[in-house]
Structures are given as C-alpha cells and as structure tokens.
Write a structure and sequence with these properties.
- This protein has 297 residues and is mostly helical.
- It is built from 15 helices and two strands.
- The protein has a two-stranded antiparallel sheet with strand order 1-2.
- A hairpin with a 5-residue loop joins strand 1 and strand 2.
- Helix 1 packs across helix 15 and helix 4 crosses helix 12.
C-alpha cells in the first residue's frame, strides 16, 4: 500500500498552494524565486534567529496576535483604519506585509533596502487625525516603535509556544536584535536589543494603549468575519483562539473578543499546535524556490 495515499498527497499539494496564494499572492512562486534564489549578500546569515522564526508556521498565530495588539494604540489604529484598506483588501495587506517580512529576512541586502525605502515612502504620505482630534503620522518614530515591538513580541511568543525548535535565552535576545536592525532602517527610535528590553518597552507603552471603536471593530472582523472559503473557517476558529490567547490578559479584556472565541480559549493551545502542524504539513509539499531568472532582477 502506498503511503501517504496519492489522494492525500494531492490534498496536501492543493492546501499548500492555497496557503501560498493567500499569503503571497498570485505571483507567489516568482516572489519566492526572487527572494531566495537571487545571489548576493543578505542582512541576516543562515544561522540568525530571525530566519528560524520567520520560516516557521507559528508566524500565522503570531501575525494575527500582532495585528490585534497593535490595534490597541489609538493613533496606530486610526492610521490603519483610514489608510490601509484592511477590510476592503485584507488579502492585499497580508500579502504586502508577508512579502516585506520575507524580503527583509531572506532576500538580498539590495532588495531589502528597496523594500524598506518603499515602506518609508508610504509612511511619509499617511497622516490625519483620530475621531478625538489627535493628530497622527505613520512616520512618527514613537508610533513606528510601537508597531515594531508589538509584532516582535507576538512573533517571538508564538514561536516559543508553537515553533518547531524554541530558542534559548541567547536566541531570544538574538531575535530581538535582528528585528531591531530592520526597525532602525524603518525609522523606529532606539528599538530594543534584548528580550528584557523588549518587555520593558512594552510596559512603557501601556499607559497609551486602550480599546477604541475602530480597534474593537477590527478585532471582530479579524476574529469572526475573515474573508475565507468555507473549508478554512473551522481551522481559522482555532487559529484565532490561539492568537487571542497569546495576548496579555489586559489586551484580551480591552478588545472584548466574541463569546465564541472566549469559550474556545481553554482549547487554544492544543488548537494552536494542531493548526501549526497542519500548516507545516501543507507547506512541506511546496517545491523549493528555484533560482531567479536574470530577467527577474
């Protein structure tokens, strides 16, 4: 008897391609070839913790948790609500974010620098006022630092909980330092270099954080109404519960997730392990990235 059965192999291939399409877009394979196959120096060598964390399936949990946590800064949430189109074009926003992370983590230094320059150009054009009249600028170093430390904390925490090979304390510090390098290029102010500094900076932002109408609407959209096909909705319930459970208790209380998600929290960790295992199973069927063709440069 063949194992795995041919039908299971085809199912895994379809699942892997569907995930890749959702996360990276219709040109996913070309992007992978460019990012991984273009020769040249990289910002991070193959032994750096950031490469280990960002290649892991736990990023699906950490990424959703990061969006939820970031939304609790009223100025950051106002900028996202007014300018990102996360509800009108959620997959486009996800694909742009995932591509940026992939290019800066795995791509050439030249491509990573260009990606940072594009993002800084976008940030320079985003400004406005909240409903309460508070002014915001996406290029504000203080706001950029909040977005950076929230995602660094969530990516690292998700990896330590669901990753294939959790980091030791030196590896945790190394990951924070790797992320700080990218944050400095983006314009963040003195990003933390160690895990202890990261926790201290998060605590320092706590007085600025609160739920707003926009943040609660964003949370309910991301948790309960994602634009997914029917077969993906049940797995997403467990992914969402794992992401919400990853948040600190005060953040969960502030966002007031739907009752169904709160009821799922006791199952969040086994569900998160099952989801990350399923993502690894599906993506292991993807062919390795091919070297980029000369005309793609």
């Amino acid at each position: 008897m063949l194992w795995p059965p041919p039908r299971a192999g085809k199912l895994r291939e379809r699942a892997g391609e569907s995930l890749l399409y959702r996360v990276a877009g219709p040109e996913a394979h070309q992007k992978r070839a460019r990012i991984h196959g273009t020769p040249g120096p990289r910002w991070f060598g193959p032994d750096r913790p950031v490469r280990l964390v960002h290649a892991d399936a736990s990023m699906y949990v950490g990424g959703l948790a990061a969006l939820l946590l970031q939304s609790l800064h009223p100025l950051a949430m106002a900028a996202v609500a007014a300018h990102s189109g996360f509800q009108g074009d959620p997959w486009g926003r996800l694909q742009r974010t995932s591509t940026f992370l992939a290019v800066t983590t795995f791509g050439t230094a030249e491509d990573a620098g260009r990606a940072v320059a594009r993002v800084r150009g976008v940030h320079a054009r985003i400004h406005g006022r909240t409903r309460a009249g508070e002014p915001y600028r996406a290029s504000d170093p203080h706001l950029l630092t909040w977005v950076h430390i929230a995602e660094t904390e969530c990516f690292l925490k998700a990896y330590q909980r669901y990753g294939r090979r959790p980091l030791d304390p030196a590896g945790e510090d190394g990951y924070v330092a790797d992320m700080a390098q990218v944050a400095r290029y983006l314009g963040a102010e003195s990003p933390p270099e160690t895990h202890a500094e990261l926790r201290a900076r998060l605590a320092g932002y706590r007085p600025e954080l609160r739920a707003t109408r926009e943040s609660r609407e964003a949370a309910r959209y991301l948790i309960s109404h994602p634009p997914l096909p029917a077969p993906a909705r049940l797995p997403y319930v467990f992914l969402a519960a794992a992401a919400v459970e990853l948040l600190p208790p005060w953040a969960r209380a502030a966002l007031d997730p739907p009752r169904t998600t709160r009821l799922m929290l006791p199952l969040a960790r086994p569900g998160g392990r099952a989801i990350t295992a399923a993502v690894r199973w599906a993506t292991s069927s993807l062919p390795p990235p091919q070297p980029a063709r000369r005309e793609e440069r």
